[in-house]
Amino acid sequence: MSDEQQVPGTADGTGAESGSVHRAGFVALVGRPNVGKSTLTNALVGEKVAITSTKPQTTRRAIRGIVTREDSQIILVDTPGVHRPRTLLGERLNDLVRETLGEVDVVGFCLPADQKIGPGDRFIAEDLVEMRTGRRGPRVVAIVTKIDLVGRDVLAEHLMNVDQLMDFDEIVPISAVKGEQIDVLMDVVTRQLPEGPQLYPDDQLTEETRDDRISELIREAALEGVRDELPHSIAVVVEEVVEVDPDGDAFTPVEPGTGRLVVRATLFVERDSQKGIIIGRGGSRLKEVGSRARSEINALLGRKVHLDLRVKVAKEWQRDPKQLGRLGF
C-alpha cells in the first residue's frame, strides 16, 4: 500500500505492538453473501476449514478457525452472509449472525473492493452501530477484501467510502487469494483483542467435527456447476464413517486402522427434479461429485476412503421447522 491509498484509521503495514502481553479472543467475520469471508478464514488459519464457492450463501454455520501465534490466539468465526431471507432457513442464518456478533470481542466487517457499498452493507453497519450504543460492543475492523481485482484509484475511492460508513476502529485492505496484507490484518486484530491466556491447544485449527467437515466438503463438491436455484436446496448429512473388512462384507466393521474406511452420506434436495439434476444421466453427475469430494476427504483424513453417496428428497426442507432441526439447523 502506498501513502496515497491510506485513509484515516487504515492499517499501514506496521507490526503488532511490542511487549509480552498475550491476547486471546473471538473474531467474527461478517458481510453480505460472497464477499470472501470463507476464503479469508482459510487464509488466516493456513488450512481449509471452511468451504468456498462462487455461489452466494455457501456458509450455513458459524465455523470456528483457530490462529495461534506467540503473542495471541485468534478464534475466527466465519458467519453466513447476511441477506434478505426468503425462507425459514434464511431467517435462522441471519439470527445466527446476530447472536454471534453479541458474543465476540472483534467484528471483521468484510467489504469487497470490486463492489460498491450497497443497502446490505448499510444494514449490517446500522446493526453494528446499534450494538455499540449504550454498552460496550465489539471492536469493529473494516476488512476491504479482493483488492487484487481493482486498480489503485478504484481502491483508494472505495477505502474513502468505507471510512464514511461508520466509525471503524481500523480499516485493512487485503487480498486473501494473493496473501496480501494478511499478516497486517492479524496484527491489527490482535491489538483489538483483550488480554488473556490461550484458549485452545497449539495444534488445533478448528472446532468443527470430523463429520461436519466431511459433510461440508461433499456439499462444496455438489455446488460446482449446478443451477442458481439449486445450491440453497442442497443439504448433506454424514450417516456414518466406518472401517470395514476390505475382503469381506462391506457392512461388517473391523478394528480401526485394519480395514477400508467407508464414508456414507446423504445429499438432501427439495424436489424430485433436483434429485435428477444431482444424480445426472446414468449417475454421471453424482460420480463427479463423489470424485471431487473424495479427493478432499482423503486429504482431510490422511488416507483413502470409499465414499458412498445417496440422494433423497426432503420436500421444502428450508421452510419446515422439523426438517430443519433434523438437518442440523
Describe the structure.
It contains 9 helices and 9 strands. The two termini are 42 Å apart. The strands form 2 sheets. Strands 2-3-1-4-5-6 form a 6-stranded mixed sheet, with helices on both faces. A 3-stranded mixed sheet has the order 7-8-9. The protein has helices at residues 37-45, 88-101, 119-131, 152-165, 182-192, 210-223, 272-279, 284-301, 321-326, and strands at 23-30, 63-68, 72-78, 106-112, 139-145, 170-173, 235-244, 260-269, 305-313. Mean pLDDT is 83; it is low at 1-8 and 12-18. It has 329 residues and is of the alpha/beta class. Strand 2 (63-68) and strand 3 (72-78) form a beta hairpin.
Keywords:
about 325 residues, disordered N terminus, six-stranded mixed beta sheet, three-stranded mixed beta sheet, alpha/beta, globular
